[in-house]
């Protein structure tokens, strides 16, 4: 019974059946010539040399050049540590292999079920596909924008280049977009100044880019999934039409952050313009003060000055009058 248990333990450590039998014999007859150990289990010649060599390589037995060399088991501490690590690596590789095989199966089934209408893009492939979306647009880009943001070098430059080519760009930003550190000044305002039509809502239902009427990029950035690590490419179909309708409805309900008709008012600083945009978007006082680089007390004074300038008695009236005058 003990030998059977030991043999199973050796097998789990990656020792072959023949080598395991030799190791059991070593424990019974060693020290002894290797040929004697082999005879105890019925092995000789090249079979014996191969099996015993496996034990030597695993750090469980002393080396032997010929069958007449006296051999014996050696303290297994170092050998067992090495074997354990090898098995751990093999198990990890097996887990990755099985997981990868299932993922390939899942994608194949998804592609077959949707007849190519939905493509799954993951990891580092997301950035190039997003940049391709801007480069391929001919007429219009429609977008829901909200954190978290996938790191895409050159994304703002791509958007500006698309606007420069005469492509219409309509973006609905979430309040979190305006509050995201540096995003308003570095991304949103340059695009607005370049002609982007921007609006804001307290939140957007999904991260979305609609490229002409050709396809949609939908980010699966939810807590239950890999955050900003999976994206769907949706070709024209019922789902695509639903996404277009969702955007257009949100666009109608959103508050504009720009005006293409009224020129910038005399005396309105970029900081005040940024303040009004954040205020209209519902940003918190702390986020507004940080974005324009002032204290909360200074922020309140600036708001009071702008309210007096526009004849507003509340912040809501201030945002409303600013929007009507094209100050946003």
What would you say about this model in short?
With 328 residues, this protein is α+β, with helices and mostly antiparallel strands. It has 14 helices and ten strands.
- Find the structural class using helix and strand composition: alpha+beta
Query: In CATH terms, what is the fold-level topology of the largest domain?
Result: Endonuclease, Chain A
Apparent shape: elongated
Put simply, the count of helices is: 14
How much helical structure, as a percent, in the residues?
40-55%
The largest sheet has its strands arranged as 3-9-8-7-4-5-6-10
CATH class of the largest domain: Alpha Beta
Please report which band the strand proportion falls in: under 5%, 5-15%, 15-25%, 25-35%, 35-45% or over 45%: 5-15%
Radius of gyration in whole Å, from Cα?
A: 34 Å
| Distance between the first and last residues' Cα | 84 Å
The average pLDDT value, as a whole number, equals 80
Biggest pleated-sheet summary: 8 strands, mixed
CATH architecture of the largest domain: 2-Layer Sandwich
Let me know the number of strands.
Answer: 10
Task: Describe this entry's structure for a reader.
With 328 residues, the protein is α+β, with helices and mostly antiparallel strands. It folds into three domains: 2-74, Winged helix-like DNA-binding domain superfamily/Winged helix DNA-binding domain (Arc Repressor Mutant, subunit A), CATH 1.10.10; 118-256, Endonuclease, Chain A, CATH 3.30.870.10; 270-324, Arc Repressor Mutant, subunit A. Helices cover 55% and strands 13% of the residues. It is built from 14 helices and ten strands. The protein has an eight-stranded mixed β-sheet, sandwiched between helices. The chain has a two-stranded antiparallel sheet with strand order 1-2. It is elongated, with a radius of gyration of 34 Å.
